[in-house]
């Protein structure tokens, strides 16, 4: 069985769950990954902003990182909030010791409301000592909602962990975040609700239905109207959205289960292994068998 390893997130805790370690875990899990964590700081906050920090001692952070590295052996590490030089020391030593394949830094220097989150001297140390160890420094600007960059960098981590190239991982993460923005902002009119209902239905039925007419009928609209809505909001046709989500599900099963290719084909609604293989080759330019071996 070809399993992807857990992803380690090293960051602060957000009591609203909109950002921080809670958002990392939610995003990684939603995309089919598994997260382990090391918390650097606990915040007391509401939707209006942060009221208080409790920074964890460096030795506690170090213990969490060591436990995750020894037990899970992550190839991908995502780093967020660092508020002290002592904690930075611990993180830098761990990266130099374990040498993960990908290190993603999501610069957490100020909150979405504009409040400074870390001291200036720590920011300088991060720039000088952490950035040279990073594969990617991820920042999404502008950030229309709290935690958006956080979710973006977590999504990048998942796609890199699956073996995608950096460019492809960034593209897929951006598409994922765009869908999240649409959901969060609450577009006016029926189109926004219809799009969200389409995405929700797709999550529930992607393994058994990949036909646009099925979703249009389920939502009680014409296929043409559904296409107009998805094009307006995401820039994609419904079939493209369905196929993209289906290929993610197939890749996940190839990565993380010991099912045969035929079993996966049937579990994903294909009438035959040949039909399944043809679809996979069209989407990935490689057979599912070779993809699994790689």
Question: Concise description?
Answer:
It is built from 13 helices and 6 strands. The mean pLDDT is about 85.
Q: What would you note in describing this structure?
A:
The model has no long low-confidence stretch (mean pLDDT 87). The protein is 56% helix and 12% strand. The protein has a six-stranded mixed sheet. Strand 1, helix 1 and strand 2 form a beta-alpha-beta unit. The chain has helices at residues 20-30, 58-72, 85-98, 120-130, 148-161, 166-185, 190-205, 212-219, 223-234, 238-256, 261-267, 273-284, 288-293, and strands at residues 7-13, 35-46, 49-55, 76-79, 102-105, 136-137. The longest helix is centred in the middle third of the chain and has 20 residues, at 166-185. The two termini are 12 Å apart. Helix 3 runs parallel beside helix 4 and helix 5 (148-161) packs antiparallel against helix 6 (166-185). With 294 residues, the chain is α/β, with parallel strands linked by helices. It is built from 13 helices and six strands. The radius of gyration is 21 Å and the shape is globular.
List keywords for this structure.
294 residues, alpha/beta, 13 helices, 6 strands
Would you count the extended β strands for me?
6
- The quaternary state of the protein chains shown equals single chain
Radius of gyration (CA) equals: 21 Å
Kindly state the mean pLDDT as a whole number? Answer: 87
Discrete helix count = 13
Please bin the fraction of helical residues. 55-70%
**What fraction strand?**
5-15%
- Category by helix and strand content: alpha/beta
Q: N- to C-terminal separation?
A: 12 Å
What is the N-to-C succession of helices and strands?
EHEEHEHEHEHHHHHHHHH
What does the largest sheet look like?
A: 6 strands, mixed
Strand order of the largest sheet: 3-2-1-4-5-6
């Amino acid at each position: 069985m070809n399993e992807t390893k857990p992803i380690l997130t090293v960051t602060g805790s957000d009591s609203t769950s909109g950002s921080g370690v809670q958002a990392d875990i939610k995003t990684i899990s939603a995309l089919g990954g598994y997260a382990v964590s090391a918390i650097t700081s606990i915040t007391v906050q509401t939707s209006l902003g942060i009221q208080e920090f409790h920074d964890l001692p460096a030795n506690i952070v170090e213990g969490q990182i060591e436990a995750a590295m020894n037990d899970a052996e992550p190839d991908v590490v995502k780093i967020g909030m660092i508020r002290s030089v002592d904690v930075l020391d611990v993180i830098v030593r761990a990266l130099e010791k374990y040498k993960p394949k990908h290190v993603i830094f999501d610069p957490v220097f100020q909150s979405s409301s504009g409040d400074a989150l870390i001291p200036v001297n720590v920011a300088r140390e991060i720039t000088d000592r952490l950035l040279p160890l990073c594969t990617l420094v991820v920042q999404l600007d502008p950030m229309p909602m709290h935690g958006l960059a956080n979710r973006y960098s977590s999504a990048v981590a998942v796609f890199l962990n699956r073996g995608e190239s950096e460019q492809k991982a960034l593209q897929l993460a951006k598409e994922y975040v765009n869908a999240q923005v649409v959901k969060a902002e609450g577009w006016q009119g029926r189109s926004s609700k219809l799009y969200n209902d389409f995405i929700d239905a797709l999550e529930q039925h992607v393994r058994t239905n990949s036909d646009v007419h099925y979703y249009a009928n389920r939502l009680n609209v014409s296929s043409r109207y559904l296409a107009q809505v998805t094009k307006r909001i995401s820039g994609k046709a419904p079939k493209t959205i369905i196929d993209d989500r289906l290929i993610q599900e197939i890749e996940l099963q190839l990565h993380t289960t010991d099912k045969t290719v035929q079993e996966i084909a049937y579990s994903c609604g294909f009438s035959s292994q040949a039909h399944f293989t043809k679809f996979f080759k069209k989407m990935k330019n490689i057979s599912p068998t070779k993809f699994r071996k790689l």
